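task queued by scheduler; priority normal; single chain, no ligands, no partner chains; default sampling; output format set to structure tokens
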Amino acid sequence: MSVKTLPDAPGVSDPPEAPRSRFSLDALRSVPHAGLIAVLAIVVVFTAVQSATFATDRNIVNILSQVSVNAVLAAGLTLLMTAGGMDFSMGSNVAVTAAVAAKLLADGQSTGLAVMVALLLGTAIGLVNGLVVTFTNVAPFVATLASATLLDGVALLVHDGNTISIGTRMFALGNNKILGVPYLLVVAVLVLVATALVMRFTVFGRDAFAIGGNEHVARLSGINVTARKLVLYGTTGALSGLAGLMLLSRLGSSSPGGTAGLSLQLSVVAAVVIGGTSLAGGYGTVIGTALGLVLLGVVANALNLLDFSSNYQPVSVGAVLLIAAIANEMHKARSSRH
């Protein structure tokens, strides 16, 4: 039996298609780090409305300069955490290398020797961390936290309770500019770009993702996991030495209770985690880390410009960071469902 299709009644037709909106939530979900960008935009707009100083060129350059030292550390930590590693001694490494370099300069040694010793010392500290983690199976968190405590003690011994001034030595690195951009910011951008290129386009970068995703499978696939880890920890150590020199050149001195150490370390870890790098390894981006660094710098700057009491600043910073982390995770969860 055949079925005949009846023609549409006069005046009756298919409902018109809904007009396509140019702005789609699906498109927004596809933007990496959309949650973090949204929080950063809110903070920037709010502060710009409240303070006429915030949006000036001078203040923006100042914010980026303030986070330059952290950016060098965060670049190395992003790569290491992508491979499933962790280094909680980077801040203390900065304190020791800055103290040793300052001591050499104060004793009349050449700037070249102080720079070379700081970089080699930082690299050696990173390699020792890598050896302990790789060959003793001690958890990276425990091994590097113990290393941080030891290094803090060494820094105190080098200072012997006194601030070590370097006068105008290394003044250019910490205070001069090229085309209006501080040298420190140039160095930080170069390190971030180099790290991004390594992670994106090199076999070493792909191996780091593989190790962080599943170390056992990475070994079975022929990756020399031990060698890769040693290189990664050595790299974080070398970058810590570089950050120590940057900090020393900016401050012009090294002090026992300086800005390095645990507080510096926590700021760097926070920026990397807020940027989306997984603590369990297997995922991380330099762009996310850079956004996390900028958010931390903007929040700190905004609180100063808006005359927040120093007692409220840690609470405010922590709240903003928590909101950013939640927004980032919600964005990732929604993206994974689509």
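post-processing summary
- The first strand starts at residue 164 and ends at 165.
- The chain is about 70% helix and 0% strand.
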